[in-house]
Specification:
Layout lengths: L4 E5 L6 H14 L7 E5 L2 H10 L7 E4 L16 H6 L4 E4 L2 H7 L3 H14 L2 E6 L3 H5 L4 E6 L5 E6 L3 H13 L5 H4 L3 E4 L13 H18 L2 H6 L1 E5 L4 H8 L6 E4 L6 H10 L1
Helix pairs in contact: 1-2, 1-12, 7-9, 11-12
Bound molecules: phosphoenolpyruvate (PEP).
Phosphoenolpyruvate binds next to strand 10.
Catalytic activity: D-glyceraldehyde 3-phosphate = dihydroxyacetone phosphate
Keywords: Cytoplasm, Gluconeogenesis, Glycolysis, Isomerase
GO molecular function: triose-phosphate isomerase activity
Length: 273
Amino acid sequence: MRKPFIAANWKMNTDSQYALELASGLEKAIADIQGVDVAVCPPFVYLQSVAKSLSVDGNVAVGAQDVYFEGNGAFTGEISCEMLKDVCCSYVITGHSERRHVIGESDELINKKTKAALEAGLKPILCIGELLEEREADKTSEVCEMLNRHICLIFKREADKTSEVCERQLREGLKGISEQELANVTIAYEPVWAIGTGKTATSDQAQEVHEFVRGVIAELYSKEAAENIIIQYGGSAKPKNTKELMSCKDVDGLLVGGAGLKVDSFYEMVKIT
Ligand code: PEP
């Protein structure tokens, strides 16, 4: 049985005071909820104060939104795995679409970060997901080309770009990671077109990709590894669509952006998850 796991990615939001209010408000609100793992991922600068404000044996864990793979040294602006552990982080997000597409991180760099996190004893949440144009390439397209007055050539193109992208990000992201280490990895399927847009994947779309991801894990590792791995969905998840998303057989939890910035909405989601 996979235990549901819901994490809030605060991104570059909150300030020092609101970060504490949000964390402690959430901890209080979910104190009696059992059977679900919960984490919050504040900006780096608030990690320590948020972690300190939460009770050690409480049910809210702390995660970082990124990490660097080197241990220490001349890497201006970067944060190491040991630094994250030093401030009581247990999770770290790797490969978030904003890091891939806004900052320009490659699969190779994301793999290095994911591996470094595991080696240090952190639990990575490896994000994968297709862009809008990649999702749209999946639609059967009909192209009509006038070759001359009398001939119209129609051809159909069936592509499966979503699977191709997710499979590549998974294979590259997990390169060199053993089956034993995989037990500490969470995969987050986050279609880029659904992140922060208010457009959520339908439960059929989410289930289809989650099942596919589990299949890739079975191929890369084993059936057992595939059965055990937690696969979160992310992309405009909110209280209104949590029940439907969580009813999918292969959706084991959520990675939440906007709706994780308010105690009430995130509490609702934790309750439903
Ligand atoms: C995210 O940033 O991981 C995310 C899913 O954001 P939102 O829920 O706001 O779409």
